[in-house]
Amino acid sequence: MRGLLHYPGWLSSDEQRALAEDVRQIAVRAPLFSPITPSGKAMSVRMTSAGRFGWTADRQGYRYAPAHPSGLPWPAIPESVLAIWRAVVPEARAPESCLVNFYGPEARMGLHQDRDERDLSQPVVSISLGDDALFRIGSETRGGPSQSLWLRSGDVLVMGGEARLLHHGIDRIAPGSSMLLRGPGRINLTLRVVS
Ligand SMILES: O=C(O)CCC(=O)C(=O)O
Ligand SMILES: [Fe+2]
């Protein structure tokens, strides 16, 4: 699939452990919350963010916000995370948002496009930690053909160019497939240029 770059095992186990700790620190300052879809349902994935903008959803819709729902600013994006962005997409502008998705054993994410950003020529970089996840990626149009791949702890995925607007989601995770985190679950970080 053009524009979709999968780097299995990009991060060593030491780097994964350090990153998991950095994510815990983000969650101390900006606790995970369950976004509410515009139709009023809580998403199964819990989220928080780092960076200038954080992604939130509530009855009013989906958007980037300058502050956590508590009113406090989002923590800075950790240097460990910025270093991955620079290594995989050296031509891109600096990321302004690092969305932290936490998937418990039952969580999933429905097929969607990432299109709340102003400059869609900038890539999205995703980093996976913890349990394996079955990622599905399809077409620009809803309901087109799709293919699946497993994202494992330490994998990095770049969605850029022609892949930037493909529908994608997480069908399920495989609880207990990784021992990185302190229990079952998966963390996904997505880095984006927003403004
Ligand atoms: O968890 C993942 O791998 C995908 C997350 C995602 O698509 C998103 O946050 O927009
Ligand atoms: Fe997405």
TrEMBL record:
<dbReference type="GO" id="GO:0035513">
    <property type="term" value="P:oxidative RNA demethylation"/>
</dbReference>
<feature type="binding site">
    <location>
        <begin position="186"/>
        <end position="192"/>
    </location>
    <ligand>
        <name>2-oxoglutarate</name>
    </ligand>
</feature>
<dbReference type="GO" id="GO:0008198">
    <property type="term" value="F:ferrous iron binding"/>
</dbReference>
<feature type="binding site">
    <location>
        <position position="116"/>
    </location>
    <ligand>
        <name>substrate</name>
    </ligand>
</feature>
<dbReference type="InterPro" id="IPR037151">
    <property type="entry name" value="AlkB-like_sf"/>
</dbReference>
<dbReference type="GO" id="GO:0035515">
    <property type="term" value="F:oxidative RNA demethylase activity"/>
</dbReference>
<feature type="binding site">
    <location>
        <position position="142"/>
    </location>
    <ligand>
        <name>substrate</name>
    </ligand>
</feature>
<feature type="binding site">
    <location>
        <begin position="62"/>
        <end position="64"/>
    </location>
    <ligand>
        <name>substrate</name>
    </ligand>
</feature>
<feature type="binding site">
    <location>
        <begin position="101"/>
        <end position="103"/>
    </location>
    <ligand>
        <name>2-oxoglutarate</name>
    </ligand>
</feature>
<feature type="binding site">
    <location>
        <position position="114"/>
    </location>
    <ligand>
        <name>Fe cation</name>
    </ligand>
</feature>
<dbReference type="Pfam" id="PF13532">
    <property type="entry name" value="2OG-FeII_Oxy_2"/>
</dbReference>
<dbReference type="InterPro" id="IPR005123">
    <property type="entry name" value="Oxoglu/Fe-dep_dioxygenase_dom"/>
</dbReference>
<dbReference type="InterPro" id="IPR004574">
    <property type="entry name" value="Alkb"/>
</dbReference>
<keyword id="KW-0560">Oxidoreductase</keyword>
<feature type="domain" description="Fe2OG dioxygenase">
    <location>
        <begin position="94"/>
        <end position="195"/>
    </location>
</feature>
<keyword id="KW-0223">Dioxygenase</keyword>
<protein>
    <submittedName>
        <fullName>Dioxygenase</fullName>
    </submittedName>
</protein>
<dbReference type="GO" id="GO:0035516">
    <property type="term" value="F:broad specificity oxidative DNA demethylase activity"/>
</dbReference>
<feature type="binding site">
    <location>
        <position position="168"/>
    </location>
    <ligand>
        <name>Fe cation</name>
    </ligand>
</feature>
<dbReference type="GO" id="GO:0005737">
    <property type="term" value="C:cytoplasm"/>
</dbReference>
<keyword id="KW-0479">Metal-binding</keyword>
<feature type="binding site">
    <location>
        <position position="112"/>
    </location>
    <ligand>
        <name>Fe cation</name>
    </ligand>
</feature>
<keyword id="KW-0408">Iron</keyword>
<feature type="binding site">
    <location>
        <position position="55"/>
    </location>
    <ligand>
        <name>substrate</name>
    </ligand>
</feature>
<dbReference type="InterPro" id="IPR027450">
    <property type="entry name" value="AlkB-like"/>
</dbReference>
